[in-house]
Amino acid sequence: MPTSPSLAPSPASPPRVVRHRRADLIVALVALALAGWVASGLWRDPNGRAITVNSSDQALFEWLLAFGGHAVTHGDNPLFTYLVNVPDGVNLAVNTSITVYAVVFAPLTYLIGPPATFLVILTLNLAATALAWYWLLSRHLVRSPLAAAVGGLFIGFSPGMVSHANAHLNWTAGWLVPLLIWRTFALRRSRHPLRDGAILGVLVAVAFSIAAEGLFFTALALGVFVAVWALHPARRAEARAVLPTFLRGLGVTAVVAGVLLAYPLWLHFAGPQRFHGTGFDAVIHSEDVVAYGAYPRRSLAGEAGLGTQLAPNPTEENSFFGIPLLLLAVACFVALWRRADAGRRATLWALGVTAAVFTVLSFGPVAKVDGRRVDLPMPFDLLGHLPVVNAALPARLALIVAPVIGVLLAYAVEALRADPPRDRRTRLAWRAGFALALLPLVPTPLLTIEREPIPRFITAGTWREYVSPGGVLTPVPLTLDVYPDGQRWQAYALAHRQGEFAIPSGFFLGPGGPDGRGRIGPTPRPFGALVDQAGRSGLVPIITEGSIQEVRADLRHWRIETVVLADEVHGAKWPVDEEAIRRTVTALLGPPERVDDVWLWRVPQG
């Protein structure tokens, strides 16, 4: 297996550009077909179906698309809003604001609505990630289109990407990573460091505005890879020679990105409603050691009953490569290493160290083996207290391993095609190894459910008769991650140009967690707690005069004008008992009115 194929094509082969164009078209069609297949459950009815395991995040991203487009077209701040979490507001710079998507796709959001726009972006994200990796591999790392296709399609539809397709528009924007890699390495011998540094700076700003956590992970991975590569004896001289040019370009990148992100970064680290750390437990959201050899649920292997419950939820299956793929990756590494020259070994060594570092870091502060915690401190325990790092979920560091495996697969396929083993059994063994490793990981469609319809009270604009312009309306239960209706209603009103109404509470990350850390949603108040108890249990809680006074104080605090109960309430984690909620709110606020298809309580102001 040589390190690279011959530079000269055979006389009978078509020109390389023609071959690439044909391969590009085929890979693009395959990527789009796979992306449509994964999201096919939503394509059946974009406005009527939701992702089963993560309908709350889907509602959040739909709201972000509607709010971002509304903010830009109305001259509002797209990174801070008082429409949610009245009266304190929400700092969207410390949330997954996807500002660039909201702006670019605003015309589509106004045309077809937030749910359909969400689906378009999700599908394009998956396809574009595979295509971007294929482009980087085929144009810069390997000469064989087949090798690039194997690597690109694997990375684009790796278990972690398909898992995060359960509503994460930020993490499925993996197309940003190969672009960042390409522009970073373009700085090594750049003749125009000002231009190339500026291009990378703009790309960094775009990446921050779509997937800030992904940008941070990419920077960490590039830092580890470049450091290991540059310290290798075969590359030290080259690294010293290009270092001045590389640093000049990075300096320009820092200036350009710093100017573009000055306000978002200020909001993130010093603005109102900021917090430190995250609202999620790093131990729970760490990768199980066994998960690397397990199979994901949304795959052919998972459909065959080989899936596991090792992830904290189905959206966080970040490794789940299966033992055959791990063995294949090791075999590829060893075979490539044996035939590589010193320069290629530096690259392989850097890839291997990068994969090993982020595999270990993904285990979090305390290792877990098959669901059981092991009393053994891990490296992340030392790093997890650092600023910025303390806001990351360690399990997601496993996402860095998939591109490393994809590059190894591409290198190996190219080497095998350029110099196939002479022994027929060896050739068959390699083919069988690729088949056994990759076929079980072929993705299956995301699970979807029929979503509760938005009430006619909202879609017909009747709400405007009961809420003053910019006034406060609340559904019951109050809007949270487990009850996303309020933001779904608000997204509909904003995208259909009905005007603005604000809501208390909401699904967002904000201050109020232990030790100054963040939490999901605001600190609970009595009214929300009583309604939540009724909706979950199906029983009306004990209502006292004290309860009524506390609820009145909550309504004054939130400046609520109207309380609304839909006939069908969406519970993201459990069914909701609407009748128990109606009787509870009636006990607190008196008899409701029936308006269109909702129960409504007017709240006297003052």
Automatic annotation (TrEMBL):
Pfam families: DUF6311 (PF19830). The chain crosses the membrane at residues 25-43, 92-112, 118-137, 144-162, 216-234, 246-266, 319-336, 348-367, 397-416, 428-447. Residues 78-382 form the DUF6311 domain. Keywords: Membrane, Transmembrane, Transmembrane helix. This is DUF2079 domain-containing protein. It comes from Micromonospora reichwaldensis.
